[in-house]
Amino acid sequence: MTSLQDAPPDSTTAESVTKEQLSRLFSSMAREEAVDVRIRNGIKRGEFATVIWPSRGQEAISAAIGLALRPDDRLVTTYRGLHDHVAKGVPLPEIIGEVLGTSTGASRGKGGTMHIADPDHGVMMTTGIVGSGVPVAVGLALAAVKDGVDRVAVVTFGDGATNTGSFHEGVNLAAVWKLPVIFVCQNNLYAEMTPVEETMAIEHVAQRALGLGLPGVTVDGNDPVATYQVIRDAVALARAGGGPTLIEAVTFRFEGHYAGDGGKYIPAEQYAEAKLHDPMVTFPRFLLENGFTAAELDEIRQQAADEVEAAVKVVVAAPPADLEEIRTDVYADGLVVTHD
Amino acid sequence: MTETQTLSIREAINQGLDEALRLDPKVFLLGEDLADPAAGVNAVTRGLATAHGMDRVMNTPISEAAIVGAAVGAAIEGYRPVAEIMIMDFIGIAMDQIVNHAAKLRYMSGGRTSCPLTVRTAVFAGTGSGGTHSQSLEAWFMHVPGLKVVYPSNPADAKGLLLSSIFDPDPVLFMEASRLYGVKGDVPVGDGYRVPIGKAAIARPGTDLSIITYGLATSASLSAAEALAAEGISAEVIDLRTLLPLDIDTVVESVGRTRRAVIAHNATTVAGPGAEIAAQVSAKLFGALDGPVERVGARFTPIPARASEAAVTLNVADILSAARRTLGVVGV
């Protein structure tokens, strides 16, 4: 059985990472966690009705991506991508507004949780179709090459996506064309409700790189510093024309597939073991051992909660998309195809 | 008078691609075997890689999802990619990228991204290639808000509609009948030539009956009109040119005059494009019709191989039978 022990040992190290970078990593993680927890609590309390695919537990990987990328770098993510959106800098009212389908959302309530795009912050697509973001990110990287700029594209996906044709087609094309794209698998050990060992005959997603002709790296995705270092190096390689990298960041998804899925299929001992590696527990501990005070960490967490609360207030006060809005943007130039 | 030159549809599309590549550095082509010297099984892209370079005419692996997916990614970055799916039957592999992404990205991003992508694909109907290489699948795409579906029947339209498709802000599925690649006709010379998307043409004027058709079925419809003329029946033939958006106004204007309609296409009759057109015509002209709206297409079987293909696909006799059915109601 694949477990967290199969990932490399805890490699958290402050080497080559500044205090400011550590602070940014934790701040990003705190905001990601706060968004996820606040929306789930709102659903649970009956404050609003919507659906999210929780990313609780996977915060370190997104924070690492956010720190490694420039604002103009591109990101494609998935339905379980709210933490990625936060880390890439999408404003919270646009994220939460889209989740709740109101007019503050990134697409004024027409996209929903699974379809958030914010080109201003480099988030070009979020997809609800497992694996299909991979070829699109390849196209974003192709555009960067054609533009003659050193922009890179990152695409995130789960372990399940690596069993799709789109993944293999897209990664192969990027390897053949040596494009500046970084494939980041957030391997949370479950594809929806099925454990990874039932869907892959190999131990690590990164092994798939060997057959496609690009570097493949497995990293402890609960360690934001180690994950940052791996992504940073892949980004540097891609910017320099060295082509794509497949990164497998091994982590765990503490909530079920969707908010409301109790995750009963997760064995108790695996869950208990995973709890010991929860990045929202282990990283603060590491920070306390490396020059941060409890007061500093409390302040970061409080600020994240305050920002999320303020965004929720704005979002719930906003109206949902009206019929006029719902009928726009189907085609450019206001074309409406209808016979009613 | 517009200066023209005689070109085949293959040459007209090649010329359209060449002009688009020259007019806009954001245009590039990608697909299987596109580049010289092979230049594809359809030979439509011959010479383009030599003229414009391999970074503008890009050979890809046999990876339809990646071809269209990469085109989607480049399109939302402001490029105008023209992706080729060699034969339409292969489009199922790229369906997710076309239907779930290209068609919906503008909408789901609230207009913050735009996907000016053209997917060119060849319909091998009538080549005897069998069930996975000869289907006419346009109805699949007429069902998808956000897409446009274009299917020319002659060289001038092929060039003019292709250029309109490439420079359209929305994703366009551009269908090419391989049986028509060699058909010749007059094509206006010059970079500015365009045929608007969404505007049908009266391919042959008439007064007794409207035959509504497009693409490969247009020549069979014109032959049927010719045969009817010999019997003293004047059939108007409307070449839709674009299936989505559908120029229902031109259809309704024509049928309003002739009071009888036959819709002819190579897609299956069952749930084919004719079903939508017949429903709209019937609803808009219920009191004005002198006969039932008829539709003819392929039989509802997979396409059989070789010689048997003709037994299931649309032919001139089918159109004539349908015309007589709708005319016979009032005893003509």
UniProtKB/TrEMBL annotation, chain A:
Outline the extent of the Dehydrogenase E1 component domain.
41-321
Q: Which residues form the signal peptide?
A: none
Keyword Phosphoprotein recorded: no
Q: Which CDD domains match?
A: TPP_E1_PDC_ADC_BCADC (cd02000)
Source organism's superkingdom? Bacteria
User: What Gene Ontology molecular-function terms does this entry list?
Assistant: magnesium ion binding; pyruvate dehydrogenase (acetyl-transferring) activity
Obligatory cofactor(s) = thiamine diphosphate
A single Gene Ontology biological process assigned to it is:
pyruvate decarboxylation to acetyl-CoA
* UniProt keywords, alphabetically: Oxidoreductase, Thiamine pyrophosphate
* SUPFAM superfamilies with a match to the protein in the record: Thiamin diphosphate-binding fold (THDP-binding)
InterPro entries referenced in this protein's UniProt entry, alphabetically: DH_E1, PDH_E1_Alpha_Subunit, THDP-binding
A Pfam cross-reference name:
E1_dh
- PANTHER family attached to this UniProt entry: PYRUVATE DEHYDROGENASE E1 COMPONENT SUBUNIT ALPHA, PYRUVATE DEHYDROGENASE E1 COMPONENT, ALPHA SUBUNIT BACTERIAL AND ORGANELLAR
Protein name per UniProt:
Thiamine pyrophosphate-dependent dehydrogenase E1 component subunit alpha
State the taxonomy lineage. Bacteria, Bacillati, Actinomycetota, Actinomycetes, Nakamurellales
Automatic annotation (TrEMBL), chain B:
Q: Which domain of life is it from?
A: Bacteria
Listed Pfam families: Transket_pyr, Transketolase_C
Cofactor(s) needed by this chain:
thiamine diphosphate
This chain belongs to which protein, by name? Alpha-ketoacid dehydrogenase subunit beta
Q: Where is the Transketolase-like pyrimidine-binding domain?
A: 7-183
Q: Which SUPFAM superfamilies match?
A: Thiamin diphosphate-binding fold (THDP-binding) (SSF52518), TK C-terminal domain-like (SSF52922)
Keywords per UniProt:
Oxidoreductase, Thiamine pyrophosphate
What GO MF terms are annotated? magnesium ion binding; oxidoreductase activity
Q: Which InterPro entries match?
A: THDP-binding (IPR029061), Transketo_C/PFOR_II (IPR009014), Transketolase-like_Pyr-bd (IPR005475), Transketolase_C (IPR033248)
Q: What is the lineage of its organism?
A: Bacteria, Bacillati, Actinomycetota, Actinomycetes, Nakamurellales
